[in-house]
Design a protein that fits this description.
single chain; 142 residues; alpha+beta; 2 domains; two-stranded antiparallel sheet; 5 helices; extended
């Protein structure tokens, strides 16, 4: 997760040449959009794979970080992790609901795309905050 962010930040700050700009990749489905009549199935296309690879590394990293076992994991820690996951999913749906009634056009599409990251990021943040509060309030140091 940190590696994906560091690579993305380096490309943005230092204007590095795009390494994955013109990669040939096998696509099951390709079009300009959902309502576009130009559709291609099972073809080799040329595509900018930078964001795709960033998404894959980010998702894999946050899943490993968010669901990896702690050094000392018990049932209560598992319960806190599950409650954090439920809280993150609720927050994700609240953002989508508010966006549906308040944001329109391409900004809505951008927000929905960015909202893909909210569940794992909020899970990690809420879980670590809950663990911090647990250790601070009860002296829980297992």
């Amino acid at each position: 997760m940190c590696l994906a962010f560091a690579v993305w930040l380096a490309y943005q700050l230092f204007n590095l040449p795009p390494v994955f700009e013109k990669m040939r990749i096998f696509a099951i489905y390709n079009s300009g959009g959902f309502f576009d009549n130009h559709r291609e199935y099972f073809k080799i296309i040329t595509h900018d794979m930078g964001y795709t690879l960033f998404n894959l590394v980010f998702i894999a990293g946050t899943l490993m970080f968010g669901f990896s076992r702690l050094k000392t994991e018990d049932e209560y820690i598992t319960k806190v992790r599950l409650e954090s996951l439920v809280w993150a999913v609720y927050a994700n749906f609240i953002v989508i609901f508010i966006a549906n009634v308040a944001i329109y056009g391409e900004a809505f599409g951008d927000l929905v795309l960015l909202n893909l990251y909210t569940v794992p990021v909020l899970l990690i943040a809420r879980f670590n905050y809950a663990l911090f509060r647990l250790k601070k309030n009860s002296g829980y140091d297992k």
